[in-house]
Design brief:
Rossmann fold; two-stranded antiparallel sheet; 10% strand; 339 residues; five-stranded parallel sheet
Length: 339
C-alpha cells in the first residue's frame, strides 16, 4: 500500500499516447477582437491557435468594411486562404472564433470547414463570437449547420472584447476558459479508498485448475461453433445500445479521437487489453457485458491476478471513472491503466 503522502498517478495512457484532451482554436480576426480572446484562451488553457488569413484581405475601415464583409457573409463566399499546415488528428476539440457579419460567421471559417470537413468527424466543438451589435445567436446556428452538428457544446458572445476591455470582459473570458478546461478529476475520498482496498485484499484469488483435455471433442466443437462477433462490431453495438454519441463514449473511456477512429474504421481491429478495459469502463458495462466484450478481443479478467481482480471489483461495484480505478490500482501497488 502506498503512503498517504505520495502522489497518486491517475491519468491513463493507451498505447504510448497520453490521453489528454487537446484543443485547437480556429479563428478569423479582422480588427483584433477575436484574436484577443484567442490569445487569452491559449494563455489560460494551453490550447493551440490557428489564425485563418485570406489571400485577399478584407477592408477593415469605414463603409467598405461593412459592405464587402456583409456581402461576403450573406453570399456564403469561400475566400481562398493562405496555406494551412495543421494535423487535426492530434486534436479532440475545435473552438471556432469569429466576428459577426450580417448575423453570420466570417466566411474564412466556411473555407476551412470545406477543406477539412471529412477530418472533423467525431470531434467536439465550441465557439465564440465577437460583435458590436447583435446576430451572434443566428451565426452560431449557421456555423453549426455548416459543420453538420445540431449545436455547439458551448458558445460565448463577447462585445468588442479588445476595444472595450474591462474587468467584466476579463471575467467572462476566464469563465469561458474554465468551462473549456472542464471539471476536475473526481477522486475517491481516502476513507472509502481504504475500505475498497481492504475488501479487495480480503478476497481469495482463484487458483488455476488444470483439466485433462478431449482434443478430438474440442476440435469438433470448434468446427461446429459459429464465429463470435468482432470487437469492432460489439463495441459499436454497445455504444448504440447505451445511447451514447461517439464523442461521449471516447471521453468517458479516456480514449483519444485518433485511436477511436482507428477502431471504428477497421472491422478487424485488435485492441490492446488496456484499451479494451477502458472501453468497458467508458460504456459502464455490467461484469457479464465486460467479460463478453473482452472475450471478443481475446482477453479476460483473471481471478488469480490481483490487477484484474481490482478491475473486476470496480466494474462489479460500478466504479467506472478511470481516475478512481487508477487511484485504487495505485493504492494496492498495481500498475495504473496504461502506465
Amino acid at each position: 500500500m502506498k503512503e498517504s503522502g505520495e502522489k497518486r498517478i491517475i491519468r491513463i495512457h493507451v498505447g504510448q499516447e497520453r490521453i489528454n484532451m487537446k484543443d485547437l482554436v480556429v479563428y478569423f480576426s479582422l480588427e483584433g477582437n477575436t484574436q484577443y480572446v484567442a490569445e487569452r484562451i491559449k494563455e489560460q488553457t494551453g490550447a493551440d491557435l490557428l489564425r485563418l488569413v485570406p489571400k485577399k484581405a478584407y477592408h477593415d475601415k469605414g463603409f467598405a468594411k461593412f459592405f464587402w464583409g456583409g456581402k461576403s457573409a450573406v453570399m456564403a463566399e469561400k475566400p481562398a486562404l493562405e496555406e494551412i499546415s495543421i494535423d487535426l488528428d492530434v486534436y479532440d476539440r475545435i473552438i471556432f472564433g469569429f466576428p459577426v457579419w450580417a448575423s453570420n460567421y466570417a466566411p474564412p471559417l466556411r473555407t476551412f470547414i470545406e477543406i477539412y470537413k471529412d477530418r472533423l468527424k467525431d470531434m467536439e466543438f465550441a465557439a465564440y463570437a465577437c460583435q458590436s451589435g447583435s446576430g451572434a445567436e443566428k451565426a452560431f446556428i449557421k456555423l453549426a449547420n455548416t459543420i453538420g452538428i445540431d449545436h455547439f457544446d458551448h458558445s460565448e458572445i463577447f462585445i468588442d472584447p479588445k476595444a472595450k476591455t474591462n474587468d467584466d470582459t476579463e471575467k467572462q473570458i476566464e469563465r469561458f476558459c474554465e468551462w473549456l478546461k472542464g471539471e476536475p478529476q473526481e477522486l475517491l475520498p481516502e476513507e472509502r479508498l481504504q475500505e475498497i482496498v481492504e475488501e479487495i485484499q480480503e478476497g481469495e484469488p482463484s487458483s488455476d485448475i488444470r483439466y485433462s483435455l478431449n482434443v478430438d471433442g474440442i476440435l469438433l466443437d470448434l468446427e461446429q461453433e459459429k464465429p463470435s462477433p468482432s470487437f469492432h462490431d460489439t463495441l459499436l453495438k454497445l455504444i448504440n445500445e447505451k445511447k451514447m454519441t461517439n464523442v461521449e463514449f471516447y471521453k468517458k473511456a479516456w480514449i483519444d479521437r485518433k485511436l477511436f477512429s482507428a477502431i471504428k474504421n477497421n472491422a478487424n481491429y485488435k485492441p490492446k487489453k488496456e484499451t479494451a478495459i477502458a472501453c468497458c469502463l467508458g460504456l459502464q458495462l455490467s461484469l457479464s457485458e465486460a467479460d463478453s466484450l473482452l472475450e471478443t478481443a481475446g482477453y479476460s479478467l483473471s481471478r488469480s491476478q490481483n490487477r484484474d481482480r481490482v478491475i473486476r471489483y470496480c466494474i462489479s461495484h460500478k466504479i467506472f471513472k478511470i481516475e478512481q480505478v487508477n487511484q485504487i490500482l495505485y493504492e494496492v501497488g498495481e500498475e495504473c491503466l496504461g502506465c
